[in-house]
Records
---
Amino acid sequence: MSRESSDQSAADPADSSTAAADGGVADARFEDVDWDRIDSVNRGRSLKSRIWLTIVSIWATAFGGTLFVRYVMGDSILSERLGPLQDALDPTVVEAIPLLSLNDGWVSFPVVGVVELHNWLWWITLAGFVYYGALPLYENPRMTRYYWRRFRKNKAAVISGLFLVVIFLIGFVGSRVTSQPEPEAGLDGIPPVGISTESYNVGPAGQKVADCAGGVCTGTWEYPFGTTTSGEDIFLGVIHGMEISMMVGLTATAASLVIAAGIALVSVYYGGWIDEIAFRWVDIQLTFPAFFLYLLLVYSIGGSMFILILIFGFIEWGGGARLMRSEALQRREEPYITASKAAGANPLWTMRKHLLPNISNTIITYASLSIPSIILAEAALSFLGLGDPTMVSWGQLIADGRDNLANLWWISTIPGIFLFLTVLSFNFLGDALRDAIDPRHEGAE
Amino acid sequence: MSSSTSLFEVRNLEKHYPINRGLFNTEVGRVRAVDGISFSVERGETIGIVGESGCGKSTAATSMIRLEEPTAGEIDFRGEDITEYDEKELRRFRREVQMIFQDPDSSFNPRMNIGNAVAEPLIVQGFDDEQRRRAIVGDLLERVGLSADDMNRFPHEFSGGQKQRIALARALAVNPSLLVADEPVSALDVSIQSEVLRLIDRFQDELGLAVVVISHDLGVVQEICDRVAVMYLGEFVEVGPTEELFTDPQHPYTRALLSAIPTPDPTERGLGVELTGDVPEPSDPPSGCRFHTRCPEVIPPEGIDLAQDTWRSVLHLRKQVIADQVDLESIAEVGAIEAGDEFGSMDEVEAEDIDNDRLIGWVRQEYELPNQLGDTSAEQTLSQALEELVSGQQEAAAETLTERFETVCERQDPETRSLSPDHRVACHLTDDSVVGSTDSENEYRRQLSSPE
Amino acid sequence: MSVHTDTLLDVEDLHVYFRTDTGENVRAVDGVSFQVQPGKTTAIVGESGSGKTVTSEAITQLFPSPPGYIPEGSVTLDGQDLTEISDDEMRSVRGGKISHIFQNPQGALNPVYTVGWQIREAVMLHQDVSKTEANERAVELMTQVGIPEASTRLDDYPHEFSGGQKQRVIIAMALACEPDLLIADEPTTALDVTIQAQILNLLKELQEERDMAMLFITHDLGVVAEVADRVVVMYAGKVMERGPVMDVFQTPAHPYTRALLECLPGEGGLGGIPGQLPEPTDPPDGCRFADRCPHAVEMCTEGGQPDLYDVRNTEAHTASCVHFAPTMDPGVVLDGSERVATDGRGRTSTDAGQPSDDEEAEHR
Ligand code: SF4
Ligand code: SF4
């Protein structure tokens, strides 16, 4: 393109000289743009977006495949009924694809092996954060600095942000390099380091680990946060719980945000019957409570992290969509939207560049309310024993200590403090982010 | 109109908004925002569309460039009918026509820096050489009097006047041949207005740009337009060259608009012809000439000789009687309050309690009618009707009034007539076949149109 | 501070500052003095940022406070300094002796109450009358402001009125307490010209009937010429020129006033005033207009704003410009651009847009 245009200016020396005289780059005048040539060029996507699209499609295929193998092939009734398709549904088909294998009814991928369902969602959420959040910030350092300058004015939010990053990193790395805490008979009731408790609270094996003397046991560095009533290491539990809280909060919120924003923007942009249908559906959906739906699923197919994320992510977006819609409705009539249409912008452009940024207040407010509430909901469900039994979450730890609050208070308190701080931090962060990215909020400096 | 193709030509453009009600969204009426307007714009020409708020001028602006789909009409751009355009052609057409808006504050996405805002038309039109794009934007910003470094700043960092310049830069980025400016300076201070207008003017000269200015401000229009169209309730009532239209307005509405502008001269006080009432609802425009409900020059029926304001009062009364909106109770109440003592003792004044003659007097007062009309035959009809009215025969009164006081202005839609090749007016006063050449009426017309 | 018997409102050296988050002061009004005579109209004219609205709000302290405050100056109404009275007393002045009407007729009426309710409320707030009496008053007021079928329309809600009619209702409310002074802040700016003409005529009529004084805030010189007896031209928180309307329009003295008049569309010249308002937090030394003034000389940027010097030795007409100082030659500003053909015919010519040569050069 650029070579072509410089050719063109060479062909028209008079013009380029005036442009140069103007002090601008040659060819910098809008009158000189050769629109016919631009119209004839077929434009493709940029490399960056092509890579992103590839990643997303690989993800979608693999995730879809996993779901198919798990829920369609695994369903014997289905494969019997669909006689002719039986061959296609045969597990050997999967095996026939190079590098794929079946492992206990799950697709096993090269390198990563079997990926659990909730992790599929977690990975794409993280990838989305990188592509839509971190990458643009990295590419526009000037803008990043500008936002940072504004963001750092809010000290509480900076501390909250740091805290969350630390939680995330420790949780993310920690739960991969350490093993899940396992119950161990006799190791129960060890207090955290430096804390003492009557020795009858501590299991027999634990008495050897902790500093026990004169009927009082004091915690040691071996189990810095102590152990639970079943002898699990609370320190490990907290670390694994970090990732789970982050995963549930972020993944479910991301899913509901994408759905809510998408539906709200499309409804507002096109209006009419699209809007009507979408929001009648929201009305209906808001009438059935996600919690009971979850209970139903827990009792019918068993609770799991995946179901939990699914429920909160794909059922709970109605309220957010309503908020975003009403905000977007106000924006729709603004002249800059008309200006963009008058310039020939297609709907996608107008929605992404104009509507979306201008409902970001609502989006961030919604996210900063939704993340903590989903984290809390997960903790509550785990507390009630309805969580994913295969994963140690903060809610479970808190539940573990609920019968012994008087003696073994640390079991509930330590994860409780983490839960409290995490929820608080998200709230602070949301406020500050909303202010920082709103250019109207204050002057640049 | 010239026979060779104009740059932009609109014929019988209509934009109606359906009013839907009820369970099945049945159409119960239409707001005729734009109801058949025609005009053309030549290369390099500036044409103004003026009118009060609610006259449909902004809708005209958006529907003539298909930002809203017009209900009917033809719109030719360079000889091609743009109402037939498909999406791709329409996008190409968008490049040729750009818009600027009234409110500089909401014309820009507050989340987008102005470099991107000005570049937007280029991007969406497929100009993806980023470096050259930046150069073009920088050059444009400099040419509208800002600096290229302003690219990274956000809209709120600029004053209203600056934003309007940036809006112009954005509109020009794709090198359009027609610019539609909807109240481009109404939100700006006077000292800044002229700068923006001059800037538009300069680019117009440089680029041969055609401009359509939509405005309620006749001063602005007079300043920059070659031709002006005066719009009332969705229709053009007068179209003509600016000079001619301002010095010798032919339509009573144009005259009224012009005389309502306060002049910055304290020795010439008093705001000429005062239009009474408000613009009627465009969902239910008046019959005949749409202006007849407010027109200070409504043509009286043959043989009636009344002072113009008395004649108007009669018409107003007639309208109210027909609509059964003469509120005798309230007239009685007000009359009683004004009459003072006599009725002071009464708690509730009922219209029935008051003798007819007195009530008629109060009705006349309310409708600013003298106790005795100048024209005897008219007076006869009026007193008969008032008599009927106060004795509770509203329908009879309505009939009496309608029969005698019907004007051609409400019966017939005045045709648009050409006074000269490019001066068109829609008013019966300019039509000898309607007004007749009876001297008294011509005389009367002259009286009205000459100032003082 | 002398209180003349023929002065209703005397604003003396009024300052209104707004404290920003960063501790700076935005000097919205920075030493403004003017008077309003009973039964007469004074118009404050200026562009946005001139401080005209804040000035009008400062009279009854309607501006948000904090951050706004009056560090200096007095506002004397009938011999009473309004800057020193208690909040309670101020409340009785507002809507009592002084009424306000504002630019936006939409915002001034509460959409959930009928118009009648709102007018009655205004009547009963300041007069000890029964509900029926208040109702009668309301009908009377509505009739006076030219709303037909007043008693039926009392039961209508604001959205059932057109913009012009709403402004009439607001005027009716403002008149409810028989104010001595009506402060009208851009009352016609949101209206169409034809409706504006109706409202201006109405205000003039009402003023005559009631012998009420008006303080008219506007940006429109045409409107000023239409309604004002005296004019105060403001720019960047300062008074630039002050005087009887005839003098100011026939012999506009201050370069800013002159430039404003030349900007008027339809006045022949697309003048425009290049440049921008000075920073309101840190105004430059000397004349506030110096940056944009075609006649600026060195001494314009020294000291404070020039005093209000007499123009042509009439005390009533003054201009804050160094060229009118006793030792200077006002001809620098006035010459070559006389607005008025002073041939004794007593008529002005409106084609005032002949800028002097140097001004023209400025614009090129
Ligand atoms: S046709 Fe009649 S009502 Fe219409 S403008 Fe002419 S005189 Fe007035
Ligand atoms: S004092 Fe100086 S700068 Fe101010 S108006 Fe007069 S000449 Fe202009």
---
Amino acid sequence: MNVKIFCIAEVVILFTALGVAVLRGLTGPVFFPVRFFAVVYADFFRGIPTILLIYMLGFGIPALQLSGVPTSELFWGTVALILVYTAYVSEVYRAGIESVHPSQNAAARSLGLSHGQSLRYVVIPQAVRRVIPPLLNDFIGLQKDTALVGVLGVVEAFRQTQINQADTFNFTPGIVAAVLFLLITVPLTRFTDWLIARDRRRRQATGVLA
Amino acid sequence: MSDALSLEGIRKSFGKLEVLRGIDLTLAEHEVVCLIGASGSGKSTLLRCVNLLEPIDAGRIILHGEEITGRAVDVNRVRRGIGIVFQSFNLFPHMSVVRNITLGPRKALGLSKADADARADELLGRFGLSDKRDDFPDRLSGGQQQRVAIVRALAMQPELMLLDEVTSALDPELVAEVLDVIRELAGGGMTMLIATHEMSFARDVAHRVCFLDAGVILEEGTPAEIFGSPRQPRTQQFLQRIVQAGRL
Ligand SMILES: Nc1ncnc2c1ncn2[C@@H]1O[C@H](COP(=O)(O)OP(=O)(O)OP(=O)(O)O)[C@@H](O)[C@H]1O
Ligand SMILES: [Mg+2]
């Protein structure tokens, strides 16, 4: 079961994360909302503890009893994993994309390739080759965290025995915990990004060459 | 006959640094113009502006009668007609030589693989690179890489070539093979704007030489005028330093 979750999640994440990374790299004021969405997404899902999100989605969504929505805990647990790891992996991709020297993009654009074509044929192929080691690292983490989805079943069994528990799922404690975590992790990631950006500006200021 | 390229009052700043301060320059069809000037005088910036890799702050650029600095201009279409070759080659390291050359024709011009390959093979043969066709760039010498970069630009069949110090990153013994390629292009009637530190090459190949100083073209003329009897003190100083460095 875990292996199946892992395989499905991995394939989905490889694509969604690349999408988020590409959105975040779009330049120009027109794309501000998309870029903003990508930043918020990455901050949010890197900020929440995985177990918390799995717990909230895995129990929460089925408990809402929405029509036309799968009620399986495993399904929602897997979705939670995908959401979280997409955020991590998109950051890995982003680092890879930024590590490709701007002159490569300039060379591609000078041939008349569009921004998208330059990304697709020149920048992303080089970026992906460079990030394979950290990518594997993240997938080791994913592999381990699939076990958390398995825990849902156990916890569920445990919950059934608690008579004093209301029969609807209570989101509040989970949301409070999530907010607390975000209060700490989001400023921290912003600070890290700022440090990286400052470092890059300094290096560019010293080494401007066509 | 309309001019191949016309620059009118080009200005460009990076933050507070004003790099180009009103450049006026016109190239006729088949003309070869060399830009000389000290490091940091704005030669690379000017070439990047012409190729629309850098947006300009003021002025107009007119290519074959069409203003390409207007708002509604499709930059990708404009760039397809202009070849640029950089000091640092900028070949795509993850592609073989032939893929480097066919990428533009296939993706930007929409040529079939067979047509693009044929075009690449013809050019590789012409410049003595046929045996490197399937090698990756890191297996080539600097001179070979730069010749491939020139071929890559030529494969788009541009009407104008911009060359930015294409021999500066090369070992001295590799410079000649690259300059020979450019001479051949000039002989074939290619319109070219060339930034260079190779004064003897500029004297040899250029129809006209422009001395760029502090963001303006301070002096221009035939190679004989510029190298033989420069009028401006700044030009004289610059050439003197070059002679002292043993490069003329
Ligand atoms: N992207 C950029 N951001 C900030 N400053 C830049 C940028 N590109 C160039 N400059 C600055 O513009 C000035 C002109 O640079 P440019 O590369 O055009 O000179 P150059 O004449 O080509 O010099 P060289 O002979 O060394 O190649 C330099 O002071 C450079 O630091
Ligand atoms: Mg330069």
